[in-house]
Amino acid sequence: MAAPAQPERTLRPRGEDEAGASMSFFDHLVELRKRLISALAAVGVGMVVGLALAKHFITFIVEPMRTALRANHLEDKLYYTSPAGYISLVINLGLYLGVVIAMPWVLYQVWLFVAPGLYKHERRAVAAFICSSMFLFLCGIAFGYFVMLPQVLTYIVHFGNDPSIAPLISINEYFNVILVILVGLGVVFELPVLVFILSLFGIVTPKFMLKNFRYAMLVITIVAAIITPTPDATTMLVFMAPIVVLYFVGVLVSYAVLRRKRTRALAEGEAH
Asked: pTM of the full predicted structure?
């Protein structure tokens, strides 16, 4: 007696199992518009919350400047020099706090936009992507607040310490200075995440990054010169050191991504 015929199995192409559905250029534009609107809405909500919290953060923001003034035996007060100066400070601080509050959702929208071009196992890394991005951004701000600001402000106050001249520090101008430092460092600390995304798409490799390290050093030096508000070499070196470390962390991240992709490709080749 003949065995019953087995149902024919159809093998779906690898792309249908692993990759996201193909999208036209117009579909990409529609998706980008959707993600931008969602991200901007989150920023708007975050700004409302930030405005409510701003006054509580002012003491925390001015403490590095007050510490630098006390270290140079000066009066540890900051001033606003226009009637609306304090209100302007609260509004600006609230807006930037709102951006930080909304950042996880903004990063989630970025990931949703790039995810259709990735494999399923790569899309599962969304939680790690968002958490690592926020962690690195906050690490950059913490490094700026606890390491860079004391270095920069102490140098500035000491350089201008003259018995015949008393400083009158404007709170608004001070806020503009520290904003460049803190936000700049927060963005710079996202370098490993950027390398991770570029490595997933095969745009950069460990070999490419190591080969072009001297050009990267030139860019790092230029960025340090722009963001660092003091002309002394010590402060620039303090700023450059973590960026160089992050660059080599990016090399390791790129190597891990490349190795994982090769391992998976070999496993799929053996399965077929």
From this structure: 0.73
- Domain membership flag for residue 20: no
Domain membership of residue 89 as a residue range:
25-183
Return d(Cα 104, Cα 53) in angstroms, integer: 18
Residues 223 and 173 in one domain: no
Task: Please give the single-letter amino acid code of residue 242.
Answer: P
Q: Rounded to the nearest 5 degrees, what angle is found at the Cα of 139, between the Cα atoms of 145 and 184?
A: 65
Q: Which has the higher per-residue pLDDT, 125 or 215? A: 215
- Assess whether 199 and 229 both reside in one domain: yes
Domain count, the chain: 2
Q: Which pLDDT tens digit goes with each residue over 4-42?
A: 444 443 434 444 444 445 667 777 788 889 999 999 999
Is 13 part of a structural domain of the chain? Answer: no
Domain stops at, among 154, 183, 212: 183
> How confident is the model over 228-268, as pLDDT tens digits?
767 777 778 888 888 899 999 999 999 988 888 888 778 77
Q: Helix/strand/coil (H, E, C) string of the chain? A: CCCCCCCCCCCCCHHHHHECCCCCHHHHHHHHHHHHHHHHHHHHHHHHHHHHHHHHHHHHHHHHHHHHHHHCCCCCCCECCCCCHHHHHHHHHHHHHHHHHHHHHHHHHHHHHHHHHCEHHHHCCHHHHHHHHHHHHHHHHHHHHHHHHHHHHHHHHHHCCECCECCCCEHHHHHHHHHHHHHHHHHHCCHHHHHHHHHHCCCCCHHHHHHCHHHHHHHHHHHHHHHCCCCCHHHHHHHHHHHHHHHHHHHHHHHHHHHHHHHHHHHHHHHC
